[in-house]
Amino acid sequence: MQLNVYSRHGWLLLFGTLFLLITLPYTWASAQIQGPDQQKCIDALNKNFAKVAKAQGKDIDKCIKDGSKDKLENPTIEDCLTADNKQKVSKAKGKTVDAFNSKCDETPDFGPSDPNTVNQAAVDKKLDLIHQIFGSDLDDVIFDQGEDKDGAKCQIDVAKAAKKCQDAKLKAFNKCKKAGLKDESITGASGLEGCMDFGGDSKIAKACDEKLGDKISKKCPDSVDLALAFQGCDTDDP
User: Fold this and answer.
1) pLDDT tens digits, residue range 5-48?
2) Which residues contact 90 (CB under 8 A, 6 or more apart)?
3) Whole-angstrom Cα distance, residue 115 to residue 130?
4) Helix, coil or strand: residue 82
5) This prediction's pTM
6) Are 84 and 60 within 8 A, CB to CB?
């Protein structure tokens, strides 16, 4: 992932591309209209995917914040990311399994069909995203607030804004998917992927452009080296 512009606007564009990395695990099949029970199953698993991802995202934000203050419950930030200290991720995962047991009497022909796969994908994609932004080891890149308060605040606030952007996109995806299954315009995995096109969505624009842009411009002063703060982003000059 490369960015050839050393500007706050350029970094915003880069983050916008990263948010498309979170997608659901699909089962591919030829075009088929899904019956009511199959639609309920797809809807339930997609909805709970978003909830698990949201819970995991909150844990990640807390780990980054606590790590910057040297207040971790776990030895390292990386350990913290998957420790699930408050068990909120586990609780969300349990609800995915419950939803599968109550809503998936008829397995869909496409889309997610296994609760454990959905749960793991939700966690993995959030972890992948945060590492795409910060780099492979957050312990090496997250600033200590005692040494660089501005840099640490920049990282914390951008991570929070990134999570909110992704949560908004998952919500929009689920809304699009539910409507498409109901009106039979979605008859395969490619139709589900089509719901990842968020062009013209004012709520997505607000969460992913306006608010994220505000965080970068307001919380990341010129004194903060963005290439150092977000080392997962390749910023080679042209």
Assistant:
1) 334 545 554 554 444 444 555 555 567 899 999 999 999 999 99
2) 84
3) 23
4) coil
5) 0.85
6) no
